[in-house]
Amino acid sequence: MKILIIHGPNLNMLGRREQSVYGKKTLDEINALLNDKAHALNVEAVIFQSNHEGALIDFVQEQADSAHGIVINPGALTHYGYSLRDALVDSKLPVIEVHLSNIYRREEWRARSVIAPIAEGQISGLGWGGYVTALQVLVAGLQADASRPAL
Fold it and tell me: What is residue 23's predicted lDDT score, i.e. its pLDDT?
C-alpha cells in the first residue's frame, strides 16, 4: 500500500518558523517519524514538499494512479488552493487534511479550508502527532475497506 504525504508552502521552514505555533521539530524530523510509522504499518510513504502549488498538483497527478491515499498539510493553500483541491478530487483517493496548529483558534481567515469539504477528515492542532495520527487512521480505513467482501 502506498500513501502520499504532501507538505505545502513554508513547511520546509519548520523548526525555525514560529516555534510557539508550529513546534520545534523540523520537516526532516517529522518525515523520519512518518517513515518509521509507515514501516511499522507495512506501507510505503512517498513524501513531497513544495512551496509551489503547481509542483504539488504535478506530484498528485503523477503519483495518484499508483497510490492508495493522501495525507496533506496544504499550508496556506488550505484557504485558496482551488487548483490543488481539484487535483485531489481528480485523484479519486481518500484524503486526510492535517494542520500542526489549531486553525480554528487562530485568525478568522485560517478557519476556512477549501480542502476540508473533499477530505475524509481533518486533524488540526495536534502538532507533528497529527501527521502520524492521520497516517494511522488512513491506513486503518483502507485496510478495513480492503477486507470487506464486495457486494
Answer: 67
Rounded to whole angstroms, how far apart are CA atoms 15 and 95?
A: 25
> Of 7, 68, 99, 131, which one is the catalytic site residue?
99
SS3 of residue 73 by DSSP:
strand
Cα of 71 vs its chain's centroid, Å: 3
pLDDT band at 148 (very low <50, low <70, confident <90, very high): confident
Residue 8 has pLDDT above 90, yes or no: yes
b/e burial code for range 76-114 (CB count within 10 A of at least 16 → b)? ebbeebeebbebbeebebbbbbbbbbebeeeeeebeebb
- Residue ranges of domains in the chain, CATH in brackets: 2-147 (3.40.50.9100)
Q: Which of 7, 22, 68, 131 is catalytic?
A: 22
Active site residue 22: yes
Grid cell, residue 129, equals: 502527532
Is 80 annotated as catalytic?
A: no
Chain segment 82-104, per-residue pLDDT in tens: 999 999 999 999 999 999 988 87
